[in-house]
Design goal:
Strand 1 (about 95) and strand 2 form a beta hairpin. About 45% of the residues lie in helices and about 15% in strands. The chain has helices spanning about 1-15, 25-40, 50-85, 140-145, and strands spanning about 95, 105-110, 120, 125-130, 135. Helix 1 (about 1-15) runs antiparallel to helix 2 (about 25-40) and helix 2 (about 25-40) packs antiparallel against helix 3 (about 50-85). A 5-stranded antiparallel sheet has the order 4-3-2-1-5. With about 160 residues, the protein is an alpha+beta fold. The chain has 2 domains: about 1-85, no CATH class; about 90-145, SH3 type barrels (Roll), CATH 2.30.30. One of its GO terms (biological process) is bacterial-type flagellum organization. Belongs to the FlgD family.
């Protein structure tokens, strides 16, 4: 009888060692529990409280795996949200800090999605990380406040634009 229990545990251990990098999953745990029930000594069966404790552990394991899957999904959704929000600032003027620590401004002309976290392209030639952005300002707000740089040539034009 002892040999059959040892062989059952040996079989269960073989399947456990095949699992990914020594991590036990719910299938491994369930196989071990079934093997334990199948090969238990009928004269000294598993106590109810032991069985209930193992089932509680199994339930906890399953809930932790579900929680981990939900966190992974939430991280993916967060990255998608960041990506969509990054696209929404194309054409807007931003204030950002460059590599030397100076405050600069420019118009967002594109977004680069080649990295894990998107980066933005300013004035068609400078790529900056999202962490460097200090402020996003609508061009209309800049123009009405007089903060926008005036690149237009107004030579020979009076106040009425003529």
């Amino acid at each position: 009888m002892v040999n059959s229990i040892n062989s059952a545990y040996g079989t269960a251990n073989d399947s456990l060692s095949e699992s990914t990098a020594g991590v036990l999953g719910k299938d491994d745990f369930l196989k071990l529990l079934v093997a334990e029930l199948k090969y238990q000594d009928p004269m000294d069966p598993m106590k109810d409280r032991d069985f209930i404790a193992q089932m509680a552990q199994f339930s906890s394991l399953e809930q932790m795996q579900n929680l981990n899957n939900n966190f992974e999904l939430m991280a993916q959704l967060n990255l998608m949200t960041v990506s969509f929000n990054t696209v929404s600032i194309i054409g807007k003027k931003i204030v950002y800090e460059d590599d030397s620590g100076q405050t600069c401004n420019g118009i967002v002309t594109g977004v680069n999605f080649s990295e894990t976290v998107p980066s933005i392209i300013v004035d068609e030639n400078e790529e900056i990380s999202l962490e460097a952005v200090l402020k996003v300002v609508e061009n209309k707000i800049l123009e009405s406040s007089g903060l926008a740089e005036d690149d237009s040539n107004t030579e020979g034009v009076n106040e009425d634009g003529q």
